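User: My instructor asked us to take a sequence, write out its structure as tokens, and then describe one feature of it. I'm not sure where to start. Here is the sequence I was given:
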Amino acid sequence: MKSLPNELLLSIASHLAAEAPSVNKFAREPTAELTCCTETPLKELSLVSWRWRKIVLPLLFHYSRIPLDPNPQWVPIDARILDNMQGQLTKLSMHEFQIWKRMKSKFKTTGADSAFDEAFDDVLINLCRVEDDDEFLKSLPQVLWFPHLPKGFASFVRFMQQYDLKHHVKNIVVYTDTEYKLRHVATADAPLARAVREIWDHIFSSLDPARVVIAAPPGTLSGLLDTQMLSTDAWAFDMKMHYIEFSQHDPERSTHRNKGCRPWDNALVHRKPWTHLAYNEGSSVTAYSTYEYHLKQSPKMLYLTLLRLAKEVQSCCNITSFSFVGVFPFSTNMDRVYSALKKIPTLRDIQVQLAPGPENDLLSTSKNIGRAQASDLWLEWSRCYDGIVGLLLEVGDGAKLVSKDCGEEKMTKEVEEYIGTLKERGQGWRQNGVGVWIRDSTLDREVISAEPVQE
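Assistant: Let's start with the prediction itself. The structure tokens for your sequence are:
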């Protein structure tokens, strides 16, 4: 082995570089374990010797994961806390003293004599970030969480620089299982925006990933995407985690970094000229057990993100492919997604999975579906495919549809029947394997509507 050149050893090691868990498990029910894997042959090979470590290192970090720090680090400063701070001025850190000084000036304008006066009750709370030396703020009972990078991220970046690995990191997964709970607090919007901007600024200034995946609870994901949830019914769906993926398959798109192509702002959706967007919202089955389930609205981050692409991005650098995974999503919610997709003229490849996959035993027992009726689940599934037919009528020649629901004979037959209705409308679609259809205008035919015969 010692006599072999490094190029040959690299070729040997590449055979151990299996596809990352974030790719293999993306279509499964979302969990915080997206990046976990029991088999790590490359890591084990890197421990064999220093030579093997040097060879394997670039492959080892091709797929990297970045966990967000779960520790809360913001506190709401009100008049009562300020009054407590005044009694401990000599013990405050410099940062805490500056907060006390700045907030004291603000509260003086109320004209109250004490922090416990009613005049203070209407004074807006200020949210302040806790720094390392802020022992007083750390001791407060209410410390709030905003998404932020872990302290270890700086060490990770230094390691990348030391071994010149930056250009080898092509895929990153940013993940957390911590739910952001301040969506309805108006004063939290500005700190949240700053916190999210810092995350993406640090990541994209240090790395150049061609693929970014976020795995997070819906409330946290909406903040990381710089968008809203547009739903008060999230409780009914009980979705613990959503996945979203942005990827760029065409390196030449980097030439489109100008204001004429898109607003290169702080939002992740505009950090690169992405070519592909994938989303997994998990199961909607829990909501079917609620009263008047059909009126419930799932979180709308995907719909709003697609609208941003439709309205703010030019065709030269918009997405060309889209993938959606959901378990029995509501047709009304999917109709919004379809309406946004219709506004993206560059869309060519569409992939959907709207029923449980082979690894999911959701329908095996009545306990799994609760009080939901199986007939309701399949009715919504059928309506979702009705919507897909409407979407396909808008796409151009050469477009492709992949239905991952076509793994079972009965569903395959039903999906084929829905695609068959396109032919009845005169639009040609050529089947290219199980669950795959390609738009072929040469198969189009004129549809002549029957005219009533007059007597």
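For the description part of your assignment, you could build on this observation: The CA atoms of residues 365 and 374 lie 11 Å apart. Try explaining in your own words what that tells you about the chain.
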